[in-house]
From TrEMBL:
It comes from the Bacteria. PANTHER family: MALTOSE ABC TRANSPORTER, ATP-BINDING PROTEIN, OLIGOPEPTIDE/DIPEPTIDE ABC TRANSPORTER, ATPASE SUBUNIT. GO terms for molecular function: ATP binding; ATP hydrolysis activity. It holds the Pfam family oligo_HPY. This is Dipeptide/oligopeptide/nickel ABC transporter ATP-binding protein. Residues 3-248 form the ABC transporter domain. InterPro entries: AAA+_ATPase, ABC_transporter-like_ATP-bd, ABC_transporter-like_CS, Oligopep_ABC_C, P-loop_NTPase.
Length: 314
């Protein structure tokens, strides 16, 4: 098993109290697995990715463990995490392609980044990896503004995986890209895994339709907790959690007319994570909710590799 996350709790300190953005999340990431991480805005996807790399000043590790290749990560110790981040676990952050320094050529950024980590990668190897994601060596001489969104995103991926990490977390790398650029980015990600340059991957997106094209398994989060995790085929064709069912059911179908099949969506909104309610957090929006749901449902493995947190799913 490449990564094991157990009862992870990460909070944000705010003036109004602690936001319980990750509130007891547990899952495994197998060797070679691409795990899609889905769920609506604010459910904690980015927080999970960041927590595995670097807790910023407002984040607090409130409990739980993360084990990578058999070693427990020292999440709260920023300096000790240096030995792992980028070397063994790497992140393509949300909005990273817009965060590239516009005054630096790509090649210079790569050199500076590597120097800051005290590592060197030879030019031939860098060119080989660029070719793997469909980029010419010439991109190293260009400024970010001279690259398309998809090219920037693939360049960031190459930079993030130069040291062959065990885990790559790609946070919304396909959002804001057109369909052909999305496909190029998804192809680049699977190529990195298939060539063994990255062992396993967490592909974060709120687009569950796209996730199903790349991920071996999908994990759906809701309000800081795991709702359901299953192999992709099972999660998309036979979901068991009412929230997953509604997410899948609300996907638009090409060719369907609104008059014949209105988009359903999911009425209501997730609870505040400042002071989340007791019991199942989906209770206010769930058509199956009853008195039992005032108790928090446990996460249960209802079939091999299929876990669900819902009283009605077993
Ligand atoms: N710096 C912060 N300070 C306080 N609360 C925060 C901070 N960053 C995130 N949060 C809160 O933590 C929760 C999880 O946010 P997170 O960004 O992880 O969600 P997400 O699933 O990545 O959403 P999106 O799909 O919009 O990217 C939300 O309730 C959010 O408001
Ligand atoms: S535990 Fe209850 S409220 Fe929560 S998803 Fe299941 S049926 Fe709905
Ligand atoms: Mg996010």
């Amino acid at each position: 098993m490449t990564l094991t996350v157990n009862d992870l709790r990460v909070h944000y300190r705010t003036l109004r109290g602690e936001v319980r953005a990750l509130d007891g999340v547990g899952f495994d990431l197998a060797d070679g697995e691409i795990l899609g991480l889905a769920g609506e805005s604010g459910c904690g996807k980015t927080t999970l990715g960041k927590a595995l790399i670097r807790l910023d000043g407002r984040m607090r590790h409130a409990g739980g463990t993360v084990t990578l290749d058999g070693e427990e990560l020292p999440l709260s110790d920023d300096r000790a995490m240096n030995a792992y981040r980028f070397h063994k676990i790497s992140l393509v952050p949300q909005y990273s392609m817009s965060a590239l320094n516009p005054t630096r050529r790509i090649g210079r950024m790569v050199r500076e980044l590597l120097a800051s980590r005290g590592v060197s990668v030879d030019t031939d190897e860098l060119h080989r990896r660029l070719a793997l994601v469909g980029l010419e060596p010439g991109v190293l001489d260009r400024y970010p503004i001279e690259l398309s969104g998809g090219m920037k995103q693939r360049a960031v991926m190459v930079i993030s995986t130069l040291l062959d990490p065990s885990v790559l977390i790609a946070d919304e790398v396909t959002s804001a890209l057109d369909v052909s650029n999305q496909q190029a980015v998804v192809g680049a990600l699977t190529g990195l895994r298939d060539k063994g340059l990255v062992t396993s991957m967490i592909f974060v997106t709120h687009d569950i339709g796209l996730t199903s094209h790349i991920a071996d398994s999908i994990m759906v989060m809701y309000a800081g907790k795991l709702a359901e995790k299953a192999p992709t085929k099972i999660l998309t064709t036979a979901p068991r959690h009412p929230y997953t069912k509604m997410l899948i059911g609300s996907l638009p179908q090409v060719g369907a007319r609104y008059a014949d099949k209105p988009l359903s969506g999911i009425a209501g909104s997730p609870p505040s994570l400042l002071d989340p309610p007791a019991g199942c957090r989906f209770r206010d929006r769930c058509p199956l909710a009853d008195r039992q749901c005032a108790e928090e449902p446990p996460v249960v493995e209802i079939a091999p590799r299929h876990t669900v947190a819902c009283w009605k799913a077993a």
